[in-house]
TrEMBL record:
Residues 19-422 form the Peptidase S9A N-terminal domain. Residues 482-699 form the Peptidase S9 prolyl oligopeptidase catalytic domain. Keywords: Hydrolase, Protease, Serine protease. Pfam families: Peptidase_S9, Peptidase_S9_N. Belongs to the peptidase S9A family. It comes from Aquamicrobium zhengzhouense. SUPFAM superfamilies: alpha/beta-Hydrolases, Peptidase/esterase 'gauge' domain. This is S9 family peptidase. Signal peptide: none annotated.
């Protein structure tokens, strides 16, 4: 175990006092002397942070003071890193406007601006009209984030949302485009988005309950108070997420309900807003499906019928119940269909095969298909779609770890692609100076774990290079091998930047996800450790040069590998880390606990699930051993990973560990899960974590 404590000043760390407390479940008692760090009024704190218990606040302030002292010698480095990363951003950047009828809509930034502006132009070009100025709206707020911005089909109004606490309770407003003025309509405690009805005189939205769960769908009529809104649907099961959306043709309102393994859709004709929502296919555990418009039919992406990597069905829009489903694109093991989008003449699907994404375009009239192909060894592909249904043009984005993001319009009929925009790096970027690779790391059970790499051509591959190894590995989320200007600040200082595509994601198909969840969760951790060992074996780095990084469920990964293989890492960065897994999954009152049971297991109902989670839950598995330097980062108003999880974890680490390496805890008292809301404020946070990485490997 490398001892990096000499790189930090010797200052006594805050250690909260212990209070006798134990969690009891299945006749098992687990001591938790730091449980008092959870505020009894946590729901209130989400929306009113000033209501936090003063004793808890004093401890969190002490943590911030401690980490600031330990990192004080990196202040200049942080400033340099920040300026480097800021210099790679085109400050007055603008998206390519997307066409919709007479207009095209886009976002832009002004030089020095933290928040986006939303604008529109005439379809064929004109001076932009600013619809929402994010910087102006954010004035006076320590935190401000805009949710969705949705224009009405008659282009007269905008429905937009904002969160000014970081708690993800969004307020919705309606803005008249002609006068650039918000109407009196004010809708609070929403999920941040809504869907206009066919008349554009009202909209549907999701309301969050006090536990931050999307439990109700309401319809709001313009010019009325929120108290007069009509309840359209109420979900009784707290284990399901819920959202409301529509179709580009504007003919249907779709209520989507689901957890991590089961889904259900309910439909309302957009011109009959108070009609009872009709179920397409009743929820069935383990069966997922998504609806996509197709005019007089729906396209249905589903895993029904044993289609683990999904297949595509069709059904008449007039009666899309399951008995009317007909297969259009069959299941092909190893080809994971990620998403679909329908047009009058086309169906486009984004799929992953052999670990790489690709676009497949299908002509509806003939059934003929062609692939939009790319050549790099590892890359990222995004399907932007279109506002319009009757079009031959689709938009997509492409990048790799060396290639800046490119935006294309693709004509599906002529098969011609038009490059609309290439990401600018004002400070300069020469892709020929860098190497991107994908290697395969042998796992503990013989599986091959993909690892994407980025490094400079002149980086020595003799084990002397430092490495930042990033991982996530949950919910089926795939971390793309995309262009990231921020990590160049490490790569240009000799780092190998690596992404471990571990089980729990869908990088190698849906089975890759299933092999990293519930009773197989520990595969995720073993895969990450195997990736670290393989990077060492191949000369990319050494154990005392690897810094591990992950956030949220990836922060849980960091806690687990810290317990399992602390000797494999020089340092660990755990951002908003989900480390108190067992306690959280035993608390059905927390915002995400019931919806998360399909991912982790339900330790309340199942003793087997209890034992599975207890075997790896990072907070519960901290033990008397040496740990590398650890940095935990969190936000006070985070409803996803509550602040007390990392606070308790840090306290227990300091109590039990046997070395002198420091454990730092930085908590943003004005933000939630996503960290700082402004684009430059976020860079300051990244500069801090990168300074920590450089410090622990001796490159600061």
């Amino acid at each position: 175990m490398p001892n990096n404590s000499a790189r930090f000043p010797r200052i006594e760390a805050p250690l909260p006092h212990r209070r006798d407390y134990a969690h009891v479940a299945h006749d098992i008692s687990r001591p938790d002397e730091y449980a008092w760090l959870r505020a009894d009024n946590w729901q209130e704190v989400f929306t009113a942070p000033e209501k936090l218990d003063p004793e808890i606040r004093r401890h969190l302030d002490a943590e911030n003071a401690y980490q600031k002292l330990l990192m004080s010698d990196t202040a200049e480095l942080q400033s340099v890193l920040y300026l480097e990363m800021k210099g790679r951003i085109k400050e007055d950047d603008s998206s390519v406007p997307m066409k919709d009828g007479l207009y095209a809509y886009g976002t832009s930034y002004v030089t020095g601006g933290q928040h986006p502006r939303y604008f529109r132009v005439a379809r064929d070009g004109s001076d932009p009209t600013v619809l929402i100025d994010g910087d102006a709206e954010a004035e006076g707020h320590a935190y401000f984030r805009i949710g969705s911005v949705d224009h009405s089909s008659d282009h007269q109004r905008l429905l937009w949302g904002y969160d000014d606490k970081g708690s993800e309770f969004y307020t919705l407003k309606v803005r008249g485009i002609a006068g650039a003025r918000d109407l009196d309509d004010l809708i609070e405690n929403t999920g941040g988005s809504g869907e206009w009805d066919a008349s554009n005189t009202g909209f549907f939205y999701t309301r969050l309950d006090e536990n931050h769960r999307p439990s109700q769908i309401f319809h709001h009529r313009l010019g009325t108070a929120q108290s007069e809104d009509r309840l359209i649907y109420e979900e009784q099961d707290p284990g399901f997420f819920m959202d409301v959306g529509g179709t580009r043709l504007g003919d249907w309102i779709m209520i989507s309900i689901g957890d991590h393994e089961t889904s259900e859709y309910r439909l309302i004709p957009a011109n009959v807003p108070f009609a009872a929502p009709k179920v397409v296919k009743p929820r069935e555990v383990g069966i997922q499906y998504d609806l996509e418009e197709g005019g007089d039919i729906f396209f249905i992406l589903t895993n029904s019928g044993g289609a683990k990597d999904f297949r595509i069905m069709t059904a008449p829009a007039s009666d899309p119940r399951e008995e009317n489903w007909t297969e259009l694109v069959g299941h092909e093991p190893g080809r994971l269909i990620l998403s679909i989008i329908g047009f009058r003449d086309w169906l486009v699907r984004l799929e992953r095969k052999d670990g790489l994404p690709r676009l497949v375009v299908r002509e509806r009239s003939t059934g003929s298909e062609h692939i939009v192909a790319f050549d790099e060894e590892a890359y990222s592909l995004g399907l932007s779609g279109s506002y319009e249904y009757d079009t031959d043009v689709i938009r997509f984005s492409y990048s790799s770890m060396t290639t800046p993001a490119q935006v294309f319009d693709y004509d599906m009929r002529t098969r011609e692609r038009e490059l609309l925009k290439t990401q600018e790096v004002p400070s300069g970027h020469d892709a020929s100076n860098y190497v991107t690779r994908r290697i395969m790391a042998p796992a503990h059970d013989g599986e091959q774990v993909p690892v994407s790499l980025l490094y400079r051509k002149d980086t020595p591959l003799d084990g002397s290079a430092p490495c930042l190894l990033y991982g996530y590995g949950s919910y089926g989320i795939t971390i793309p091998a995309s262009f990231n200007t921020n990590c160049l600040s490490l790569v240009d200082r000799g780092f190998v930047y690596a992404i471990a595509h571990i089980r729990g994601g869908k990088d190698k198909g849906y089975a890759w996800y299933e092999e990293g969840k519930r009773e197989k969760k520990e595969n995720t951790f073993h895969d990450f450790i195997s990736a670290a060992h393989h990077l060492v074996a191949k000369g990319f780095t050494s154990p005392d040069r690897i810094v591990a990084q992950g956030g949220s469920a990836g922060g849980m990964l960091m806690g687990a590998v810290a317990n399992m293989a602390p000797e494999a890492f020089a340092g660990i960065i755990a951002e908003v880390p989900f480390v108190d897994v067992l306690t959280t999954m035993l608390d059905a009152t927390l915002p995400l606990t019931p919806p998360e049971w399909p991912e982790w297991g339900n330790p309340i109902a199942s003793f087997d699930d209890y034992q599975t989670i207890a075997a790896y839950s990072p907070y519960d598995k901290v033990k008397a051993q040496a740990y590398p330097p650890i940095l935990a980062v969190a936000g006070l108003t985070d409803p996803r990973v509550t602040y007390w999880e990392p606070a308790k974890w840090v306290a227990r680490l300091r109590e039990l560990k046997t070395d002198d390496n420091p454990v730092l805890f930085k908590i943003n008292m004005d933000a939630g899960h996503a960290g700082a809301s402004g684009r430059f404020s976020r860079l300051e946070e990244i500069a801090f974590t990168y300074a920590f990485a450089l410090k622990v490997v001796g490159n600061a």
